[in-house]
Structures are given as C-alpha cells and as structure tokens.
## 1
Amino acid sequence: MRKTITLVAVMLSSIALFAQPQAPQGGFPQGAPNAQRPQNAPRQAAVVPGQTPTSPKFEEYFEPVSTEFATPDEDGFIRRWVILEPIAKPNRSNTVFTDSYLREAFAKQYFKGQLSDVLPKDGRKEKVEVDVTPAPMGWVMPGQTVQQPEPKFEKRKLQWHAVDSKLFNVKLFRFAAGLQKDVYGVIFYMATVIECEEDIPNVRLAVGSNAGSMWWLNGEEALIMSSDRRMVMDDCMSGRITLKKGRNVLWGGIINGPGMSDACVRFVDESGNPVKNLKIYSK
Amino acid sequence: MKARIILIGALALVSASAAAQVGTPYIHDPSTVQECDGKYYTFGTGTNGIMSEDGWNWHTGAIRPHSGAAPDCIKIGDRYLVGFSATGGGLGGGHAGQILTMWNKTLDPTSPDFAYTEPIKVAESLVDEDCDAIDIGLFLDPNTGRLWCTFGTYFGFIRMCELDPQTGARKEGTKDINVAIDCEASDLIYHNGWYYLLGTHGTCCDGVNSTYNIVCGRSRNVTGPFIDNVGRDMVRGGGKMVAFNEGRKVGAGHFGRIVLEEGVEKTSFHWEADMDMSGRSTLAIRPLMWVNDWPVAGELFQEGTYAILSQRRSYSLELTVDFVRMAGSMRGFGRGSQDEPNIIIEDQKLEDVIGGWPEGDIDIRICDFMNRPHQKWDIVAVPEAGGYLGGPWFKIVISGTNRVLAATAEKEVISVPEFSGAPEQLWRIDQLIDGTYRIMPKEVPGTDEQLALISIADSTPTLGKFDFNSDNSKWFFKTTK
C-alpha cells in the first residue's frame, strides 16, 4: 500500500516537474544562482503550509563540476560522478530484479567504452538502442493473464553529465526528471575515478541503491545488489578489495522500475570507517 | 528477547547429542570451571574432579587431594586458589566445619609444576552456632582487588570473610558477616555496579526428586545487604531465581560464573540428577545472560530448523540465488470477494526452487526473511567433532540438502554442496549475555585468528573480530517449518 501511495505521489510530482521550462540541451541545466544547498539528508518538508508546492529542481541536487578534483564527504561518500542520461528499460515492477535479471541486463553492451578505464567526457553523446516496449502500470488480478507486448527498440541519443551531487546520495530520479528524461523503467550508468596516493588494501565498496545495481572496480565486478531494494546506507558491501595506488575506475549500473531511484557509494576500511584520503575525478 | 528464548526452548527439535555435556561429566557440588593451559577443570565433593580438553567432553583426571566437600577454585595472577571444607556430617550430623584453601601453579596433573600447597584454615563453625562452615565460594573484587570467601549451608547463615589474595589465608582482623540464611553453595560475582550473592535453595541429594535451585540477591556493596527482585533480604530467605530444572535435568545447584570475554559468559553448576544419564549428578554449563542486571541461566542451543537473522537489521542469512516468486497476487483493495472462504497457501518448497540453484559453491548474503527454502537452515550437532565450553560443534545446512555454511581463506562465508567435516564447516554457537548469539567457525583457513560471523553491511555477511558492543556481531534464530 505504501508503495502505491509513493508511486502516485512520485508520478504527480514528476508531471509537475515536466511543466517547468526546458532544460538546456547539453551541458548543465541552469538553476537559480543561489539555490539552497540541501545537506546530507534533507529533513525539510517539500510542501510548506500556505505555499504552492513545487517540484524539486535539478540544481537542488546537483551542481556542475568546478574543481579539478573532489574528495569524499565527511562520511566518505563519493559525490562526483559522470552520469549517462537514463536508458529506457521498461518494467512495471521492481520485483523482477533477481540476480539473473541484473546480470543479463548489465551484460548488454549499450554504448562504446562501457565499463572501460577511460571515463566518458562531460557532454559526450551516445547513440543507444533502448527498449521502449510499453510496460503498462497497474495491478494484476489473481488469475489474470497479462499479455506480453511485442518487444520494441529504438535508437536514442543520450548524454553524459559530469556532476557533483549536493547530497550524500546521488538522486538519479531527480537527475532524470531535471533533464526531462524517462524516470521510470530505466537504467543509469555512472562512473568516477578514484585516485589514491598509495595502495589501500582490505577496503570494501559500500553501496545503497534503489533499486537493483551492479558495480565494477577497475574492470572487475565488485558488487551485485538484486531485488526490489530501497536505498540504505551500507546496505551491501563488496568483498575485501584493494584500491590501488594511482587511478581506479569505478562504474555503477542502477536499474529501476517505478518509484525513486538513487544510490550512495563509499569505501570503508576493515573497521567500517569511511575511507576519505581519496581524490575523485570525473575524467 | 525473552520471547525468542522461550520460542527456541519450546519449539526446537531436541537431540540427545546436544542436550548435555558428553563423556563422563559426573560430579556433585562442582567448583567454578577453570581453564588452565587450554583445558578445563572442576572439582567436586570427595576427592579429585573431572576435566575436559574441549569443554564439552568431560572425563576423570582432575586431581584435588584432602577430600572434603564442595570446593571452589579461582585463578589469581598465575596461580589457582582452591578452597574446600572439612565438614561435620551434614544436616543430621554435627555442624562443626572448617574452610581451607591451598594453591597450585597449575591444574594440569601432568605438569611438572603441579603441586598443591598445604591447606590452611580460613574459617570455621562450631557445633552449636548458626552456621555450618562448608561450601566455600571465592571472589576477587575487580574494583578493589580484595579477596572474599563465602561459606555456609542450610543450618543457619551464609557468612563471608576476607582473605589475603597473596597468601589465601584469612585476613587478620576480618570478622564473619552474615549475608544470607537457609541456603548453601554461595558465590559472589560482580556485574555493572552490582555485587551478587548466589545461593542454592531447595532439597539437595535426593536424585530425581531434588528440588535444588539457584537464586540470587544483589547489593551495591560487596558485603550486602543482598536484596532480591521483590525487595527481600537474603538474610530473610530472599532470592531471585537464576537456574532451575530443565525438564529431564533436575536440581540445579552450586553456581559458578565463567567470563570468556566481554559479552560471552557461562555458568557452571550441577544437576542433582540427569534422567538421560541414569539419574547421575552431572556437570551443567549454560550461557549466562543478564536481564535488567539480573543473572539468568540460558539453555543449550537446540538443534532444529531456523532462520538465522542478523541483529543489525533482522535480515535473514541466505543463499545468493534468484528469488523465486510464489504464485498468487495481492488480495484486497476491491479484488476478490470478502465472502470467499480462506484457502491455505502452501509454503514454497525446496523442490520448487532447487533446480535453479548452481551446483557448486554458492555465495551467502543477508536479505528480507521470506521463509523460503534458501533461508532455512538445519543446525545439527556433529558429535564426532567434539565441542567447546557449553556446546557441540554444529554444521549449518540448507534444510533438505547437504549444502553447508563454510568459512573461506578470504575470511568470507560461502555454502559448499557437501559437508566434509572440515573445521571451516563446523560452527560454534554461543548465546550472549543479552540473549543474542555469536556464531563462529571452528577454523578459518589460513589463519589462527578467531573470527565470527559478522554483518558487515545490512545485506553482506563476512568473518571478522567479534565485538559485543556492535549488533554487527550478533544473530538470533527464528524457528521455521
């Protein structure tokens, strides 16, 4: 029941968001110059009594990359990413996200350089074949047979955006909504470069994601998070891994049907403390 | 937590192999179990005592000279102080008694250092006074370093006096203090700002009809007054129950406390009669829990089929396999008639899903408990593997299969298709002082470290150092059908 209500609320808010002025094509959407920076976990109600509710704006969640490198935040979360606009992958429900489903979905080559050690440049566009098979929303009655629609694919141009998240978690739903892209039934790819002054052994990649996700460090699978997940800090961790001296490339793929999509990512040491002596690059 | 404990006790399948210490754990009036060079020792009334290499399988071999009644043993520095009593003859006999102490550098009779000092008298009772000086309890106050001795039985008072921790002799000028009445087998312990006096009430030495039980009172001062949970002073007979009958094990008496590490405690005592061991008096070792700062003896972990749930998030340890949806969609919200009769939805069965599981090793994770086959674990004692203090080694098996939980050289956990008996497939389960559990492999390949099953993340298990102060280190069990 809660999911239903959430879903309706999110749909309404996204309709309102789409009514806003067009975001510029390419580059970074222009927001209010003095947009309030939400802190780690926004605790302020979106709807203020007596005021007309407005949908959150892109710039409340993201800002352009303006420094050579970033560092993890005080809790170790990595906020600098280059993110591809969402790849359509219609799903009427998040309950399909088994391990097998994720592995198949993320095994597909959507664009050149996928999971490579070179990050896509900010503003680069990919021509991606996306699944646009309609995924009707709604309930399936007991005993009701759902007719599977004919699969339908089309090519779309999707763009990479280098961003710093203003929150500890990367609000992918707001990323998509702010760019006026698909918000439901989508795959997000995001990548970042982590530079270390020396080898840091026995750390773990700690991720929370909504919904399922897979993560690769330096070309190796580090973590898979199946099922209809909510984003929970430190929900899943990789095995013990080594962040090598120099450049490490981290990729994530997040898949979602209906509802919010976001992810929070950090590395923790053997004691569970955040690893913060890192430099984070978007290229 | 109490509900969980009761649930496990009431519903779990019981196996004789996991119900008691094994071997010949026959003893009456045992001293607190002490560890010496990796072996465990306890002494009883009469001569000698029993010992164990692993804490689970007990046999004769502990040596204590001078006979006498109801000894106690405490380690002070690198020596062991053993106390015992020379008694006048029990309830119907004379009541003149003597409490004596002696030292030994080791409890291992095969050690060249094994030699008891001459016993010295530290307390006594005369024939006609309100005390019978037997049943010594020794206590080293962790706050002051002072050594105390309690003694006495049903004939009058339990008394305490101070000893010299260097010599084991009665401290000059100390006077006996009456701290309880009409009980025996007293012992002092300290926990969280409280001193506890434990004593045994009920009828001793009547086999399966013995009503022996262990009670306690507590005080902020080492010398009392010791008050029970309803405000009665133990000198007026008060006492809150700590340990009592467990079905076929009858008559709990002669409490001892063993602190293995922070959060992991055991109590040793005897059953007056174990009905599965010819009604013999046998050694009991049980988890010791603290509930609202009162000690409570738990029970041995019982074999059965369980969900293993993290204290961190109450998620369930499971195989990393695809979640298989059950048939049937949501009811209600206008779907279906309210007048339809209810039908029983069958559980998902192993045969419904096992065909989709890999055949080799399968990773382990922690997820929402859904009562599904990949989350149901048979926890089964492995008698041939022996045990540890207070339990046998267990194998942890996906129910209906041979697939077992195993530790890896990478300090992670996986499941392997077959049980081989290898030490990384054997698990120790200790109930902690807060009622939750620690789960530890017997060995982790490639390391001598003692590691425990840990929730490193909500959904990710691993092996790591046990930390009682972290819910990451704790688990609980839920029975499944």
## 2
Amino acid sequence: MQVSMTINGDQVSLDVEPRTLLVHYLRDHAGLTGTNIGCDTSSCGACTVHLDGEAVKSCTVLAVQADDREVTTIEGLADGDVLHPMQQAFHECHALQCGYCTPGMVMAAVSLLDEVPNPTEDDVREGLEGNLCRCTGYHNIVRAVLQAAGGEETRR
Amino acid sequence: MIPAAFDYVRAESAGHALELLAEHGDGAKLLAGGHSLIPLMKFRLAAPAVVVDIGRITDLSYVRDEGTHLAIGALTRHCDIETSDMVGSQAGLLAAATSKVGDPQVRHRGTIGGAIAHGDPASDIPAALLALRATMVVDGPDGQREVSSDDFFTGFLETAIGEQELLTEIRVPKVPDAGWSFQKFNRRAQDWAIVGAAVLVDNGSCGVGLVNMDSRPVRAAGVESAIAGGAGAADAAASAADGLEPPADLNAGVEYRQHLARVLTRRGLEEAGA
C-alpha cells in the first residue's frame, strides 16, 4: 500500500506492506539510517523519532500509522552544518561514548524540552527513562540536556 | 522483528469501526495507539488477518466533566490524561497511575482504551479504575451498554468486550476530596510493576486495586471491607493478598508478590490517609 509522510520537511511516498514498521520505513525504504534499532521491543529508545513533534519509538509504530503525518529524525535536526542546540550540548558535555543510543537520546531530549522547557535534574532523568545508554552512566547526558535548556551551568 | 502479514483498514468513525468488525469477523483486531498490540504482533503472539485502525477517530479523544463523573474517550492518550488538570483535580489517582505507564514515548502513543481493552493484569491503569469504581461504555451492533470495572476484566488478557464491540468511553466518578496513592514496585525505570497498589480513600470507605496479583486486574475486597469496618491501615492491609493467585516469574515468586501486596497496600492506605 502507498504510505506517504513528510520526513524532515520532505514529502515521501512509498509502496510498502501494511506490516512495515516506521523504523524500517525510515531506514530501509527512505534510506535514513540515522535512526538506530536497539532492542526492537520498545524498551531502549534508540529508535526514537518525532511524530507530529512528539517523541515516539519507531519500532512500535506502523509506518501506516504515520501516513499523512510529519516525522522528524536525527537527520532533520541540524540546520546545514549548524548543529541543533541539543546536539551541540551533547558534543560539548561529552554526552556519548559509543554513540549508539545518541540519535534516540537526542530526539527524546528535544521532545522533553518542548514539554518541560525548564526541567530540574530529576525531570530530565525521569523524562529520559525510555532511553537506555550502556556507556555513559547518564551523568553527561543529563548535564547536556540541562545545558541545552539553559537552566544550569555546565560543570566539567 | 516484523509482524505477520495482515490487511489494513482504517476506521473513520466509531460506527465505521463497528461495520468493519462485522464485515471482517473473528480475524479482525482493533488497533488504537498500538503499544499493546504491536509488540504482541511482533512476537507473533497475535497474528490478526485484518487490523482495523481506530487511531484516527479523533472524536473518541476527550476528557469531559459530566457532573458526577468524568467521561474519558477511549482513544485519549496517556500523555493527555496525565497532564489533564481535570483528571488531576477530580481523579488524581488515575492521573498518577497513568504517569507511571511505560515512558514518555509510550505515553505519547498509548491510549486508555487500548490499555484496558488489552486486559493485562500487569498494567497500571486497570488497578486505578477498579479502585475508582469506573464504568466502561461499550458500543456494539445491539447498541450501547455499560460495564462496571468489576465485570470488565474477565481473565488473562480477556475483557467483557465482545468481538463485534468497541470500547468508546471510560466513566470515572469525581472524587476531588478523596485521598489516594499509587504504589508501583519495580526494579528498573519503565519496567512493568512487579506488584502495584492503587488506593483511594474517600469518607471512610476505600477502594484498592492491585497490579499483577492475579490472572486479571483485581480489587483487594478484604482490605476494603476491613477499612469500612473501622480497621486501621496496617490491620486492613494484612488481607491484601487473600484469595489471590499471583504469577511467579523471574522477578518474583508467589509468596514475595503476596508480601509486596500487603506492604504496598499498607503504604498506600497510609499515604491516602486511611
């Protein structure tokens, strides 16, 4: 069936099976491999993208559920060579090691700040509970999100 | 993991969904937000021939004040319930339980109707609805009927919703002055509850719903009658696990779950002011 959506501002229309998951639509059909598949069971958050501006786990959304909607992936955040403030904060705070969780973590963090613009550290930790990182111990990730929110001075 | 192949149809309204269910019969399954059904389909534990997508029926997403109760559309998402001022002030227990479901991404997609129609004893929301004495509204070919929360959850992943029926609304009594507590015990963020207790205390009576303490969501009736009879929190909570058959799994055995039910119910009663 024909499934159409706007991905990072571009109109995309592809013929896929109804059972195609959004993450496979993005990676295998639209060629956007920035979104990672981690657990494939809606636990780890590596596949997090925005659907109509809100963070969702694209391994647990059918592509057809995003039909006629707007999807933003990690590829859509930066403005040319200028990183999104959240990406910049992750870079500056060394909020990644292997980087596998990072696309999903950044997308979840951007969505969190949309809903809670001035979060406390607890808000950030709770708001990112759907994203697992096995390297960093989360401290630098939390620091990056707080820096991006402009709420707390960065300590290094 | 990819679901087994299925045919996809999109319902444009509640009436259209009922027509599609009638047309496609046993092989059809309703898809709301998909956060219970899609994981099952990926594991091939469910393989419906036809998926009827009701997720775009926007007029089943609402929270309304109906005087004595709140009317919540079945397709209202968890994130909209947890942040609803009306739910927070009139049925705070439901808002609290909803805020503990999964994680923010899950709550952006999952719906109250989808969650309870799944009938999972490990889900947080049924316990809150049992404690609140909510009523479910079900539409079908023979019209509309109301089902009390006590009659709604009939077995493991089974509810009173018939194959040709659609859950359309959840009616939650307004209890602005009640004390409440939602106790969820798990070992990791975003996990299912190993055991949970939803407690409502209102004018000397109480409601206690338990998570993961039987094959279906259940009330702790012995605790409720003990409180009504004047017992204190600790004495009443001692009967929290009576007559229940909790599952045993890697996280907890039967006796440990029974212990947790008593402890969490006591804490809940104390926090709710019993």
